[in-house]
Amino acid sequence: MDQPWKTDKWYVSPFCFLPEVRKNYNFAPNIRIHDVTLRDGEQQTAVVFRREEKVAIARKLDALGVHRIEAGMPAVSDQDKAAIQDIAALGLTSEVFGFARCIPDEIKVVKAAGCKGVVIEIPASDHLIRNAYGWTVDRAMKSSIDATLAAKEAGLYTVFFTIDATRTELNRFLEIVEQVATEGHMDALTIADSMGGCTPDAVRHVVKKVIERLKKPVEIHCHQDFGLGVANTISALTAGASVAQTTVTGLGERAGNVPMEDVVMSLLCLYGIDVGIHTEKLCETSRFVLDLARVSVPRTGPLSATSCTRWSRASSPGGSVWRAGIIRSSSCPSRRSWSGRNRCRSCSGRTAARRQSRSGARSSASRPPRRSG
To answer: What is the pLDDT of residues 269-327, one digit of tens each?
Structure first.
């Protein structure tokens, strides 16, 4: 592709593809999407999925091409456990993971549910270990080691998930994860910006340091509290992280998790990286999940919103003109676009408004001037 920034499907900035800009990127050969909608997305206020709804969402995610589905936390409730068992029994192409605390008995429940892998959580920051869990640091370390060894013994792909990693002093964090990797077990490490309080530059620096220290795959899990979740996720991937943990359209507590759509489309259009997601199904999947969650998306959202960003008004010597924006394949016709979004209400509304304006202008031109006073 001679001009990857300008195709029949999108038109972005050529600055993104300058050699000077791209020379320090260190993308993993195969970037994977780990969807956490059924677990972390459900932590959004008032969002609760029924057993059959979780199964239906898992089918949609599989059809979308999502690499891994975090189906939930089977130790939490019998309903969750049943839903995860149902999903694991579907024989999906997507790998099914369970979520567990650092408790060996919970690892057994994940294994019994039929999951291929497990995400094991523990706070990394002393602040959360002491104030949220009420544990000592020594107890947290021992629990982490015991639980990860139990996961290894169970034959589960083990992702060690460090809650609040980005609010932990860096050297302390490196010591913690290295001890668990050495005395316990981990196939991969998740760096979690649980409170959304980190910057892209900081995330990139830490990911590089962790990879250098552990020599293991790194995954990234961010939140949107400062609106930097997508940028932080992409930054981690440029530093070598190989898995992005996201939710459908950013479902999640507080300001939300990182939207899968934004990460996938940013990688494709701005970085030239196709992660294998069927982009034409993104909006269909978003609508399906949000309907079940009873959540609406702001009209001005980036990709899955009801209003699109494909058009912007610009001034020219000849007056105001409409020019194509980022997504250009359909130019907002009525047919489905390559990203799976139909003609948006916003653009339809603009067209109607312009027609009405022109009609009104013609009518007023034929009227006699209004008398003053």
So the answer is: 999 999 999 999 999 999 999 999 999 877 777 776 554 444 444 444 444 333 334 55
CA-only gyration radius of the chain, Å = 24
Q: According to the model, what pLDDT value does residue 177 have?
A: 97
Distance CA 126, CA 109 (A): 28
Identify the pLDDT of residue 337. 55
Q: Where in the chain is the domain with CATH 3.20.20.70?
A: 16-293
Residues 124-158 pLDDT 10s: 998 899 998 899 989 999 999 999 999 999 999 99
Q: Is the pLDDT of residue 100 over 90?
A: yes
Residue among 104, 40, 38 nearest 75 (CA): 104
Do residues 148 and 184 touch, judged by C-beta distance below 8 A? yes
C-alpha 257/C-alpha 249 separation (Å) is 8
Gap between the Cα atoms of 218 and 214, Å rounded = 9
Q: How far apart are CA 50 and CA 79, in angstroms?
A: 8
DSSP result, 240-260 = T--EEEEBGGG--STT-B-BH
Q: Looking at domain 16-293, what is its CATH homologous superfamily?
A: Aldolase class I (3.20.20.70)
Amino acid at 228: L
DSSP annotation of 166 reads: G
Rounded Cα–Cα distance for residues 235 and 200 (Å): 5
